[in-house]
Design goal:
single chain; alpha/beta; Rossmann fold; 2 domains; six-stranded mixed β-sheet; five-stranded parallel β-sheet; 11 helices
Length: about 250
């Protein structure tokens, strides 16, 4: 049984599908390095509405100069279409795909797309990359229901034409269950507590850790004791603070 339950989705950027997703997760690896077993338990679930609309847009390859995606989830929606229609997939091979962050870029490469801007680090910086490329055709911006305004507003201000399509929706899980013998539960966002409460999970049998002060404050405001708070939101910091707190007990 695991020592630590991580209330997060496991990393899915690796192209090595021979191993269990949890074993590829960078947080799971950090705990393994200090001799603790950890598993991921997602607090959120994702739905992909109207795949027929996405299929239609992707079928119009000549209309678009490339894709804009800011989440691996948007590329999961693309992958679903590619899996059903190889002609559409072939049409998009090596298509320019603007991304923020290495995880999304890695997922794009898995789909034989050509990511740009992975080192941008923010929506504003990505807009500058796109603006410098001066695409001659509109971009297809694939978003989720919780997307922020910075990227589309920045593209509009820069005069970059784009079509936006919402391709996934995010919901808090309601059927969350924890392994009975876990010692620690690490919470990564206020949404994690929402999932625990909606699922009726009893938190009295585990020690709570938070990825940062905002999540810790949310837990304490709800009346829960927080035994450990990571000094920074990294795998090593979280694993280290939990190991240190165990040693002090």
């Amino acid at each position: 049984m695991p020592d630590v339950v991580l209330l997060r989705s496991p990393d899915d950027a690796s192209s090595d599908r021979s191993d269990h997703p949890d074993r590829r997760d960078r947080y799971v690896r950090a705990f393994r390095e200090i001799g603790m077993d950890a598993v991921c338990e997602p607090a959120l679930q994702f739905h992909y509405p109207r795949p027929d609309v996405l299929h239609l847009r992707l079928s119009q390859r000549d209309r678009y100069g490339g894709l804009v995606v800011t989440s691996p989830r948007a590329l999961t929606a693309v992958s679903n279409v590619f899996g059903e229609d190889d002609a559409v997939r072939q049409a998009w091979i090596m298509a320019r795909t603007y991304t923020v962050g290495p995880r999304t870029a890695a997922r794009a490469r898995e789909l034989d797309l050509h990511p740009r801007g992975e080192e941008a680090g923010s929506a504003g910086a990505l807009v500058k990359v796109i603006e410098a490329d001066a695409p001659s055709r509109p971009l297809l911006f694939l978003s989720g229901d919780r997307r922020r305004d910075a990227l589309p507003d920045g593209l509009s201000h820069a005069g970059v034409a784009f079509d936006e399509l919402e391709v996934y929706r995010t919901e808090v899980r309601t059927g969350l269950r924890l392994p009975p013998d876990a010692s620690w539960l690490a919470v990564f966002s206020p949404s994690g507590l929402d999932a625990l409460e909606r699922s009726g999970v009893d938190l009295s049998a585990v020690r709570l850790a938070a990825i940062g002060p905002t999540t810790a404050r949310h837990l304490r405001d709800a009346g829960h004791a927080v035994a450990a708070v990571a000094s920074e939101p990294t795998p090593q910091a979280l694993a280290g603070t939990i190991r240190q707190t165990d040693g002090e007990s």
